[in-house]
Amino acid sequence: MSRKQTAVIFGGGLSGLSLAIALRQRNVPVELHEAGNYPRHRVCGEFIAGADMPLFEKLGIKSAFDDALSLKTTVWHCGQRQVLDEQLPSPVVSISRYTLDERLSRIFTETGGVLHCGSRIQEDGVEREGSVWSTGRRLANQVSSKNGWIGLKCHMSGLSMKSDLEFYIGRRGYLGISPVSKDRYNVCALFRVNSGLPGTKQDLLYGYLEDNGIHNVRARMEEAKVDPESWCAVAGMNYRKVRNENTGMRIGDQFGLIAPLTGNGMSIAFVSAALAAPSIELWASNKCTWQEAIRTIHFTTEELLDLAISGDEADADFDGLPNGIEYVLLSNPRIPSGFFAPNNSLSVNEMGDAFVYDFSRNLDATITIEESVDLTAWTVIATSVNGSPFQTPLQGYTTTEVIEVGGNLVNVRLSSPVTFPTGKFQRIMVVR
Ligand SMILES: Cc1cc2nc3c(=O)[nH]c(=O)nc-3n(C[C@H](O)[C@H](O)[C@H](O)COP(=O)(O)OP(=O)(O)OC[C@H]3O[C@@H](n4cnc5c(N)ncnc54)[C@H](O)[C@@H]3O)c2cc1C
Fold this sequence. Notes:
CATH superfamily of the largest domain: FAD/NAD(P)-binding domain
CATH class of the largest domain: Alpha Beta
Largest sheet: 9 strands, mixed
Distance between the termini: 32 Å
Mean pLDDT: 87
Number of helices: 10
Structural class: alpha+beta
Bound molecules: flavin-adenine dinucleotide
CATH architecture of the largest domain: 3-Layer(bba) Sandwich
Low-confidence stretches: none
CATH topology of the largest domain: FAD/NAD(P)-binding domain
Shape: globular
Strand content: 25-35%
């Protein structure tokens, strides 16, 4: 029997570790690169709603939750006012990330996985077969202090609780408190950044509570004892959709973030790992190409059999772009894109401001760039067959330059300026 190919996972948070373990269960060789070390505290509310023991069992990580708490009740405050005191519709699992991530890393190495800690991988835009990105949330490129978010977290003991899960909703953020083990409580907050607030750690947290009008909780916190090692903070979170974020195999927060307070990021990490594992196993066993493996993670097994949902001509997210086109242009067939618009900009050349655009593409399709002045007659100006370099059939044609920037990215540069009297149209044709 031929040996399976090795999957390489970048990022050892919940999604990366649980995928790594699920693949080891399937006898797939796995190498995992994690920038940090274990154990360590992470900014997280540390309760898991939406994922349950059957899912953990399927992933091979159930033993990590043996002593996890089960939270059953919740109270909510808006400002100083209590607005809710209820049983949760179903219990949620609560466990410290310090403990959980460390346990998962141990299960991974015990099952024969190769773990490289302190190994930060630089993304270079090149899609490599067998590589999975699970490096967590993307940092916002241009988050100003006005619209950025800050996450703060610490563990306390000796805290008197009103309910299993307490929420305090403020003007621009919220605080959550829940037990994570016997007499250990996680205090975790997410606020819009207020760069005018002074201090670090505890002073900063209290400053944000005051700023958000939810300082009524402070007195109880002051009576409790903080674990100084558990303080952590994150900033620069971007909850807006990032363009072209779904190229390649990406799971967990790296695939996409959901809005604050929805609180299901950990469940999404586990579910995305469970969805990716069977496809990666097929690839590792040489039963499908890597591109096919990427594609199948968007659909369940039943959906893959139903071409009205998963076929090239179908449009699974009803955004007007057939799945086949979304596949070739590396967008997600389950997330409405509206329409395909390449990233465009202007570049200055000797003739004036000229139009430049780029797009990402899969390497197993024929892509043709065509040009027209009247939207009726089209001239082929460049073609790439299954990832081959773009060829231009027109000798001496110089008004458009097509550059392979690397891997999947194609950059198209028009030399005639945008002020040129006769307008010009370009279209991208894809065939699989
Ligand atoms: C304030 C706050 C509260 C939250 N509360 C909850 C909650 O109560 N419940 C819930 O379900 N979710 C919650 N979440 C979300 C949850 O923490 C995330 O959704 C979850 O951790 C995502 O898991 P992940 O594996 O995708 O990413 P992460 O857990 O972030 O892991 C990513 C890993 O990749 C590593 N890494 C990063 N870059 C590289 C690189 N270049 N090379 C190698 N390694 C790299 C990092 O070190 C990290 O270990 C909260 C988030 C915040 C910010």
